[in-house]
Amino acid sequence: MSVETQKETLGFQTEVKQLLHLMIHSLYSNKEIFLRELISNASDATDKLRFEALAKPELLEGGAELKIRVSFDKEARTVTLEDNGIGMNREEAVTHLGTIAKSGTADFMKHLSGDQKKDSHLIGQFGVGFYSAFIVADRVDVFSRRAGLPASEGVHWESHGEGEFSVASIDKPERGTRVVLHLKAAEDEFADGWRLRNIIKKYSDHIALPIELPKEPLSSLESGEDAPAAVEWETVNRASALWTRPRTEIKDEEYQEFYKHIGHDFENPLSWSHNKVEGKLEYSSLLYVPGRAPFDLYQREAPRGLKLYVQRVFVMDQAESFLPLYLRFIKGVVDSNDLSLNVSREILQKDPIIDSMKSALTKRVLDMLEKLAKNEPEQYKGFWKNFGQVLKEGPAEDFANKEKIAGLLRFASTRTEDGEQSVGLAEYIARMAEGQDKVYYLTGESYAQVKNSPHLEVFRKKGIEVLLLTDRIDEWLMSYLTEFDGKHFVDVARGDLDLGKLDSEEDKKAQEEVAKAKEGLVERLKNALGEQVAEVRVSHRLTDSPAILAIGEQDLGLQMRQILEASGQKVPDSKPIFEFNPGHPLIEKLDAEADEERFADLSHILFDQAALAAGDNLKDPAAYVQRLNKLLVELSA
Ligand code: ADP
């Protein structure tokens, strides 16, 4: 072994310690994945080298054939992975193998419950990468040298996977990285050619560069040393980029493993779409819908976008220009024949080729989701749970595909159980009542709050389904969605509810008569409520409640108002419309009340109650309580 100098010992970042501990204790049922993770890293490292070498060919140091070699030593109980990729310098070894760079890691770690079963799912979602070596090894040596640096600037990183690691400078003539796993006592099964070959075939067949195993076991190979030149190697994987192969020849398992590699996910994707486009533009794309949301889906700086290749050469990770923000959960690869190899993010943003690719890829994703919704409704439910909130950003962001996106949305309604978001607009329209030509909805803060809203009374009576929208984003979403399939959306809490043909001629006539008969009461209420209301009128939407507050046609809804208020913004002043139910005993009592002071008190109580029922806060809660108590005292007197 070469001489080590400048050795220092460092502590792992706290999150790494937690991750290591958890991994060792919770991923024991699927230990073999360590090989997939390390091969995935080696493959990324060769991708990076190939790309950097475009501008600096000298980085290849004369050795252009990129590959990964996996060897083992039964007696020494080691497994060694070697790549001739980009390698790491000392500083990179310290940061990349001593910390976790992902944004939101600390947050993520807080979510761990200590319950290993639950946490093992979370950890899969996080992706463990390099540290998975410690599932099978109790000591890991990494020897690396970055391409382009002199042999003397190699680094030896070593750790037992507990609290710390050491780094030292070494001589390393070949560029790239060698990872030596010293297997734990019970894990010698991995120092076996058959076992390794099978694991590679199973998980890494899709890796685009050769993965080689020695034909004969290398019992003489000392860990950390280069293999003797006489060893004969054979390639065990297919070694061609998966997306370049014809669809018909690719097995589902291969698509799934490829997804895990590029998506840094442990679980299978829900669905994928693989396409080759020829003609004016030439590119291949392979797009995946993940099985679940990454922990950082809502983090602004979280990675998103596709891996970009140009003529099979890796160019960049997270090329976000190929899909809109509301599809940021999609993972995949796009390989273009038209772009230049030295394309940059800035160029991507301006290139008209990218625009047309973006709209084609967007359409592909939406088609894929449509298919999933149609053919696998159960799976789609899972998708909706994970990504529905993000998809709801779509109509505002992507005007051209508004209708298509709207078709993919799922809502709770007065017909779903427990607020489950499962009703699509097409389904709603297909079962509309006779004479109904609008899509009715109600927004609110929670399902519990809207499901009993007085606004729904008339709809319940007439057997009309109403969509119940209670996600924070919903009111904003509905300001962009005005119709679907030619049917307009109507907020049932807004304006002067016109039920169109749902009210018969007699109904309408009766309503007019009541309105006329109650003109006096309307006037008295206007006087009593004064500045608080924009208008007072007789309601046709109530059966059980005495009164309700409707929002003016152009006014901000409650949800938006509350969001603005919470963010400290000025909310435009708007007054509600007070509607009363003329048949309600309380209203009849009110109408008959001769004492103007009691009339006013009762009116205010009804107004405040209607605000409460709508989920709003009272402007003057103390006044409400005083009035109510006054009434209670009179009652019990
Ligand atoms: P991830 O691959 O998700 O970034 P890992 O923990 O697997 O996380 O690896 C951390 C980093 O270490 C990688 O991003 C890379 O920069 C570096 N690294 C790991 N393995 C290699 C390798 N074989 N060659 C070069 N760099 C590597």
Provide structural commentary.
This protein has 637 residues and is of the alpha+beta class. It has four domains: 5-240, Histidine kinase-like ATPase, C-terminal domain (Heat Shock Protein 90); 244-377, Ribosomal Protein S5, domain 2; 406-499, Rossmann fold, CATH 3.40.50.11260; 502-636, Heat shock protein 90, C-terminal domain (Four Helix Bundle (Hemerythrin (Met), subunit A), Up-down Bundle), CATH 1.20.120. Helix content is 38%, strand content 19%. It contains 23 helices and 22 strands. Strands 1-6-5-4-7-3-2-8-9 form a nine-stranded mixed beta sheet. β18 and β19 form a beta hairpin. The mean pLDDT is 90. The protein binds adenosine-5'-diphosphate. Adenosine-5'-diphosphate binds next to α2. Adenosine-5'-diphosphate is lined by residues 41-42, 45, 83, 85-88, 96-97, 127, 129-131, 177, 264.
Topology:
Layout: E1 5-11, H1 14-26, H2 33-55, E2 68-73, E3 78-83, H3 90-96, H4 105-110, H5 116-126, H6 133-136, E4 137-145, E5 154-159, E6 164-170, E7 176-183, H7 193-204, E8 211-214, E9 233-235, H8 252-263, E10 271-277, E11 283-289, E12 306-310, E13 313-319, E14 331-336, H9 345-350, H10 352-375, H11 377-391, H12 394-397, H13 402-408, E15 412-413, H14 425-430, E16 438-443, H15 447-451, H16 457-462, E17 467-469, H17 474-480, E18 483-484, E19 487-491, H18 505-517, H19 519-529, E20 535-538, E21 547-550, H20 558-566, E22 577-580, H21 585-592, H22 596-613, H23 621-636
Parallel strand pairs: 2-8, 12-14, 16-17, 16-19, 20-22
Antiparallel strand pairs: 1-6, 2-3, 3-7, 4-5, 4-7, 5-6, 8-9, 10-11, 11-14, 12-13, 15-17, 18-19, 21-22
Helix pairs in contact: 1-5, 2-7, 10-11, 10-13, 22-23
The protein binds adenosine-5'-diphosphate.
